């Protein structure tokens, strides 16, 4: 780094460069049109994964509850 250079100036240059790169990538993606998965497809896939995870959670909770009810308290005899 050069002497007597304000760190905020360097950070500002970096930020402008990074935003410029992302802006170019965004414009390129918009120009390409339909390529890759759409937001609707990703939402459907996410919903399916969430449903499977919730079903698995319910099965595990039911199993743990039923098994914990079988444990006897040694103080009750």
Describe the structure.
By secondary structure, the protein is mainly α. It is built from two helices and no strands. The protein is elongated. The N and C termini lie far apart (76 Å).
Number of helices: 2
Low-confidence parts: none
Strand content: under 5%
β-strand number: 0
Percentage of residues assigned to helices: over 70%
**Helix/strand class:** mainly alpha
**What characterizes the major β-sheet?**
none
- Terminal CA distance: 76 Å
What value does the average pLDDT take?
A: 84
Order of helices and strands: HH
The radius of gyration computed from the alpha-carbon positions, rounded to a whole number of angstroms, is 28 Å
The outline comes out as elongated
Q: Any descriptors?
A:
single chain; 77 residues; 2 helices
